[in-house]
Amino acid sequence: PSARIVIDRDFHIGQVPRRIFGSFVEHMGRCVYTGIYEPGHPEADSRGFRQDVLSLVKEMGPTVVRYPGGNFVSGYRWEDGVGPTQDRPRRLDGAWHTIETNTFGLHEFVDWAKAADVEVMEAINLGTRGVEAARALVEYANHPSGTYWSDLRRANGAEAPFDIKLWCLGNELDGPWQIGHKTADEYGRLAQESAKAMKLVDPSIELVAVGSSNRGMPTFGTWEHTVLSHTYEEVDYVSMHAYYQEHDGDAASFLAEAVDMDAFIDGVVATIDAVKAAGKHTKQVNISFDEWNVWYQRGLDSEDQPHQVAKEWKTHPRLIEDSYSVTDAVVVGTLLHSLLRHGDRVKIANQAQLVNVIAPILAEEGGPAWRQTSFWPFARISELARGNIMQLVVESPKVSTAKFGDVDAVDAAATRDEDTGKLALFIANRGLEDATEIALDLRGIAATSVARAELLTVPEGGDRHTANTLQAQQAVGLVPLDSVQIDDGVVTLRLPALSWAVVELE
Ligand code: AHR
Predict the structure, then answer these.
(1) 353 within ligand 1 shell (Cβ under 6 A)
(2) Does pTM surpass 0.80?
(3) Percent share of the chain, pLDDT over 70
(4) Which GO biological-process labels does this protein carry (predicted)?
């Protein structure tokens, strides 16, 4: 089979919003404790930050990291995580049935974010708390000095304000599992008043209102409409969350889940714009897709459901430490393509989560850290997606799926940097059987050489389930894509079945 992709220099949808390469650190399982932070680990620095994990994070290249939850934040008192460590309280975290020691908190996260060179995206608790705690936290974090909360920050060792620009107004409050679950009207009013009070402390902040926890929620659509009807003037973004998994061995439908993501985004864009039109607003609210990934959620009785987890109370239990296969990595690549294709409206996105908990990086307590298969598409797209997001025309062979009907086997996204002239093409073959020959029809773009061409696919001796494990940490990685040819301005390449690739041309 063969496919054709047209890329015209003049057809693009705007600049790559670099914040779409975000990630997420929640106080959940072993993401913080024994993930990014493990005092006493041979690789930890004097602050307890694991340097082996940190260097993998830097290599992967997230631009912004959401913190501290997630479901966790809906029962969290941020004050518990500041001040002398020995005075911090141990608390029960109901969301994950875990003992929270609070030895890691806001100051530690801000320091870690500096070390990782990422922007902080801070979530506030609108489950059990509200306006007062929200505005106090903004004053603590962002006000220079001379007031109760800002001086407390200084007394706790941070003279300069943290200057956190991005704030989430709670987490998944449409979900019955959420501590402090609310109706859309209850949440909309609380978010509106919290936003107002927070912006009175620091008008420069950007705010994210909570959207639906997933597209299948019974309130999806009406939730966004009602929440935005209350908050449109106060907020800058509405959130989206989506997790995908393979059901009953139906790999074809799973590999096509970017179709679902595309449609989900289009639906939220339509809802935002309907509220904008009816309210005669001129400002533009956009999307923060602040949780997305592959997540193998087990049955409702399982221990890792959001509302029912570890049976005993302990600190940092192993929770949802999914191991990702070649198939999962191809899906992650296509989900990133979808986010990139919608970069005119999706301005922030966070892969959930960063370490150990449904994460591209795994780290053993006292042991090594390594890259999952899904690390690779994220790392390359974050590194190479620069400049304009190109509008592609893709003519592809089809694969038939039970969930979406016939879909394109070839899924792609591309960017072009006007300054360097570099074109980056990210491309997947979702077909499980056939290799595909691809011809690029470049218009107004002169490509004379291949700067990079790499492929992720089933390794020698492996199958589509092969993963990177403690025992085989590098079973799946990127290998050279040798098939790229440039002949008289025409670029051709060959993608094996079930593969993801990056091609950078200059
Ligand atoms: O990322 C894991 C969990 O998924 C988050 O805590 C929650 O927001 C979502 O349900």
Answers:
(1) yes
(2) yes
(3) 98
(4) L-arabinose metabolic process; polysaccharide catabolic process
3-state secondary structure 249-261: CCHHHHHCHHHHH
My answer on whether 70 and 124 are in the same domain is: yes
Q: Could you tell me if the CB of 170 is within 6 A of ligand 1?
A: no
Collapsing DSSP to helix, strand or coil, 170 comes out as: coil
Determine the atom of ligand 1 nearest the C-alpha atom of 96: 6
74 shares a domain with 141: yes
Instruction: Looking at the structure, tell me whether residues 60 and 42 fall in a common domain.
Output: yes
Q: Final residue of a domain: which of 335, 352, 384?
A: 384
Rounded mean pLDDT, 1-17 = 97
CB–CB of 500/333 below 8 Å? yes
Which one of 98, 172, 290, 296 would you pick to mutate in the ligand 1 pocket, going by the greatest count of ligand atoms within 8 A of its CB? 172
Measured distance CA(446)–CA(438) in Å, rounded:
18
Domain that holds residue 483: 2-10+388-505
Atom of ligand 1 minimally distant from the CA of 24: 1
Look up tokens 């192993």; give the residue: 318
CB of residue 352 inside a 6 A radius of ligand 1 = yes
Report the SS3 class of residue 112. helix
Chain centroid to Cα 356, Å, comes to 14
* Owner of token pair 């290599």: 59
C-alpha 352 to ligand 1 mean position (Å): 8
State whether the beta carbon of 198 lies less than 6 angstroms from ligand 1.
no
DSSP-assigned letter for residue 460: T
Q: Whose CA is nearest to atom 1 of ligand 1?
A: 352
> What ipTM was predicted for this assembly?
0.99
Mutate to test the pocket of ligand 1, among 291, 298, 356, 357 (most ligand atoms within 8 A of CB): 291
List, by residue number, the catalytic residues. 172, 291
CATH number for the domain harbouring residue 452: 2.60.40.1180
Q: Whose C-alpha lies nearest to ligand 1, atom 8?
A: 70
Whether residues 412 and 378 fall in one domain: no
Q: Let me know the angle formed at the C-alpha of 293 by 289 and 295, rounded to the nearest 5 degrees.
A: 135
Q: What is the pLDDT of residues 24-59, one digit of tens each?
A: 999 999 999 999 999 999 999 999 999 999 999 999
**What CATH number corresponds to the domain at position 39?**
3.20.20.80
Average pLDDT over residues 395-413: 98
